[in-house]
C-alpha cells in the first residue's frame, strides 16, 4: 500500500454534489478528492485521483503512456488539454473492448475501490471499467460519459483468487473515442474494511448523550441510579411476510417479537388483489395489515404496478391500449385510496429500469404518470419508491447501474418534484462489498432516502449466514441507508431464496445472524450511577428511549421519562437530557 493509510470513504459520511461553476472547479485547478464520495456533475476538468491513484502506475497520465498499452485494436494516444491537463485516449475503436489497459496483480482477500474520470469524443456513451482475470472478466463500475466534460466513474472489486489481471475499459458505442484521466485503484484489508464499518456506525448511527438527574427544585442528584431502555430504533431491520402468518400462531410470535417493519411478499400485488378482471379482493392484505397494525409494525406497500410483462394479471395481456389505461387507472386509485395513510412507502412501479411493459403499451411516460398519480393519492403520507435489482448485486449489469438508476429518477422528477426514494432489492449470491459501497455512494448523491428492500443471499448454507452478516453490516454502516427489509417470508415448502427459520420457527444460522445484529445495533438496557453533578454519559444508537431514575431522597419511588436520540449531522455533538425526579 502506497502512502498513508486511506479510508474507504469520506469522513463527512455523505455524498457530495458540486456546481461546475464553483471556484473549486476552475479550469486551471485540480484538487485531491480522497474525501469526496461521488461527484454527479460533468466537470470541465477532472479532479485529482483518489488516494493518489493507489496502485495504478501513472494515474494522472503526466508520464505519457508509461504503464499503459492498447487493449484490442484501438489506437492509443497521450494528450494534453488546453489547460495542460494530461489524459489518455483510445481512437479507431472497432469492438466494445477496444481501449487502453494496465497490468495489475490482484489479491484474493483484499477489497479494492476504483475511480476514474471519463469523456467521449461525441454525444454520450456508457463506459465500464473491467478487469480481465484468468477466470474471466469482472466489471467494477459504470458511468455515462459525455463529450466536452469529465464524468466520474466509481466502483469496487473483490476477487476469488489472487493472480495477474488486466484493467481495461469498454463501451458498446464503437463510434466514440474514450478519454480517461485520474485513474485510481486502492486496496484495503478485510480488517481495515471492517474497522471502517465500525467507525461509520459509531459516527452515523449513534450520538453522545449526557443525562442529568435533578430534583424538583433543580438541584443535581449525585449517585442517582439511572436505567435506560431503547423502545424503538431509527434504523429498522425487518422481514417480509406472507398470508401463511394469518393462520400460524408460531409464525406470528416469531415475527412480532423481533421486527418493526415489513412488506407483504405477494398479497398487495395486482395479480393477487384482482385475479379476475373487475373482481377485487383485499381480504388477505386487509387481515395482514390488521395484524401488523395491532403489533406496531410499519408496512411498505409492495407494489402498485410491476413493469415486467410476465408479472401482470393474466387477463391484462389481452387488453387493448385504451382498456389497459382504464384498468391501470382503476388499479392505482383502488389500492392507494384503500391504504392511504396506512403505509410508510409504496413501490409504485416495480423494476421499471429493467422492464417497460407499461411504457411499451401506454407510452414512454407511463411510469412518470403513475408516480405523479401516486403522489396525488398518498404522497403526503408515504415515500414513493423505485425498486430495482442488480444495482448492488451484479457489477456487469449496466442496465441498472447507479448511473442508470439516477437517470430514471431524473426522468420521473422532470415533470415535477416528488417524494421519491431509492429501493435496492439486494438479491445476492456472493456480495461484492466494495462495489456495494461505491454504488450506494453514487446513489446517495441524489440526497433521497435509500432502503434495501428485498435482501437475501442465495448460496451454500455454510456461506449464506456469513454473507448475510457482511451485507447487513455494510448497509447499516452507510449513513445514506435508512432501513432494511429481508426477503424471507416463510412458507412450508421453503422461502424464496433464504429462510431465517425451520418449519418449527427455530432459527437457522441466518436467523441467528439477524437476531445478533438487531441486538448489537440496539440497546436493551443500560444502567449506571450519576456523578457528583448528577450526570451520566452514554453513546446511544438513534431511536426512542425510556429512562428511569431512582435516588434515596425519593424513597421507594422512581421517575420514568421518554426521550429521543436523533442525528444532528454533527457526530461529535453531545445531546443533553434533563430528568426531573
From TrEMBL:
Keywords: Carbohydrate metabolism, Hydrolase, Polysaccharide degradation
A single GO BP: polysaccharide catabolic process
GO function terms (MF aspect): endo-1,4-beta-xylanase activity
SMART domains from the UniProt entry: Glyco_10
Superkingdom field: Eukaryota
Pfam families: Glyco_hydro_10
Every GH10 domain range: 222-517
Family: Belongs to the glycosyl hydrolase 10 (cellulase F) family.
This protein's name: GH10 domain-containing protein
Annotated organism of origin: Escallonia herrerae
Amino acid at each position: 500500500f502506497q502512502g498513508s493509510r486511506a479510508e474507504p470513504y469520506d469522513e463527512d459520511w455523505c455524498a457530495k454534489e458540486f456546481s461546475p461553476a464553483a471556484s473549486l472547479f476552475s479550469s486551471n485547478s485540480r484538487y485531491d478528492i480522497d474525501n469526496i464520495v461521488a461527484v454527479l456533475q460533468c466537470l470541465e476538468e477532472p479532479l485529482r485521483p483518489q488516494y493518489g491513484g493507489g496502485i495504478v502506475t501513472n494515474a494522472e497520465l503526466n508520464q505519457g503512456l508509461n504503464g499503459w498499452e492498447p487493449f484490442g485494436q484501438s489506437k492509443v494516444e497521450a494528450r494534453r488539454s488546453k489547460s495542460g491537463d494530461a489524459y489518455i485516449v483510445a481512437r479507431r475503436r472497432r469492438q466494445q473492448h477496444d481501449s487502453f489497459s494496465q497490468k495489475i496483480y490482484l489479491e484474493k482477500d483484499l477489497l479494492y475501490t476504483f475511480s476514474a474520470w471519463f469523456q467521449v469524443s461525441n454525444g454520450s456513451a456508457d463506459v465500464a471499467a473491467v478487469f480481465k482475470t484468468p477466470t474471466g472478466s469482472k466489471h467494477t463500475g459504470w458511468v455515462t460519459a459525455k463529450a466536452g466534460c469529465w464524468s466520474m466513474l466509481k466502483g469496487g472489486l473483490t476477487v476469488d483468487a489472487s493472480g495477474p489481471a488486466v484493467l481495461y475499459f469498454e463501451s458498446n458505442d464503437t463510434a466514440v473515442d474514450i478519454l480517461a484521466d485520474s485513474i485510481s485503484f486502492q486496496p484495503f484489508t478485510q480488517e481495515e474494511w471492517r474497522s471502517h464499518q465500525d467507525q461509520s456506525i459509531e459516527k452515523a448511527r449513534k450520538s453522545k448523550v449526557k443525562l442529568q438527574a435533578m430534583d424538583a427544585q433543580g438541584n443535581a442528584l449525585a449517585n442517582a441510579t439511572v436505567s435506560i431502555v431503547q423502545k424503538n430504533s431509527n434504523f429498522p431491520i425487518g422481514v417480509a411476510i406472507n398470508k401463511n402468518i394469518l393462520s400460524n400462531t408460531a409464525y406470528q410470535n416469531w415475527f412480532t417479537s423481533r421486527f418493526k417493519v415489513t412488506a407483504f411478499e405477494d398479497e398487495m400485488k395486482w395479480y393477487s388483489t384482482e385475479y379476475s378482471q373487475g373482481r377485487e379482493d383485499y381480504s388477505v392484505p386487509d387481515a395482514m395489515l390488521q395484524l401488523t397494525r395491532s403489533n406496531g409494525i410499519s408496512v411498505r406497500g409492495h407494489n402498485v404496478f410491476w413493469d415486467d410483462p410476465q408479472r401482470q394479471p393474466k387477463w391484462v395481456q389481452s387488453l387493448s391500449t385504451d382498456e389497459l389505461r382504464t384498468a391501470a387507472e382503476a388499479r392505482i386509485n383502488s389500492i392507494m385510496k384503500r391504504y392511504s395513510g396506512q403505509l410508510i412507502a409504496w413501490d409504485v412501479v416495480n423494476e421499471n429500469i429493467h422492464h417497460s411493459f407499461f411504457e411499451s403499451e401506454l407510452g414512454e411516460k407511463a411510469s412518470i404518470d403513475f408516480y405523479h398519480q401516486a403522489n396525488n393519492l398518498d404522497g403526503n403520507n408515504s415515500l414513493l419508491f423505485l425498486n430495482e435489482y442488480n444495482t448492488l448485486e451484479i457489477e456487469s449489469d449496466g442496465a441498472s447501474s447507479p448511473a442508470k438508476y439516477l437517470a430514471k429518477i431524473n426522468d420521473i422528477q422532470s415533470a415535477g418534484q416528488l417524494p421519491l426514494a431509492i429501493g435496492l432489492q439486494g438479491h445476492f449470491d456472493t456480495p461484492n462489498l466494495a462495489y456495494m459501497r461505491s454504488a450506494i455512494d453514487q446513489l446517495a448523491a441524489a440526497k433521497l432516502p435509500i432502503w434495501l428492500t428485498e435482501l437475501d443471499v442465495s448460496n451454500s448454507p455454510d456461506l449464506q449466514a456469513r454473507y448475510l452478516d457482511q451485507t447487513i453490516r455494510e448497509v447499516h454502516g452507510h449513513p445514506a441507508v435508512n432501513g432494511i427489509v429481508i426477503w424471507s417470508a416463510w412458507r412450508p415448502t421453503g422461502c424464496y431464496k433464504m429462510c431465517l427459520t425451520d418449519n418449527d420457527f427455530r432459527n437457522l444460522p441466518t436467523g441467528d445472524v439477524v437476531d445478533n445484529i438487531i441486538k448489537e445495533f440496539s440497546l436493551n438496557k443500560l444502567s449506571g450511577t450519576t456523578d457528583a453533578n448528577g450526570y451520566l454519559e452514554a453513546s446511544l444508537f438513534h431511536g426512542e428511549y425510556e429512562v428511569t431514575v431512582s435516588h434515596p431522597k425519593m424513597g421507594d419511588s422512581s421517575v420514568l421519562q421518554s426521550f429521543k436520540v436523533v442525528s444532528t449531522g454533527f457526530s461529535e455533538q453531545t445531546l443533553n437530557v434533563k430528568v426531573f425526579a
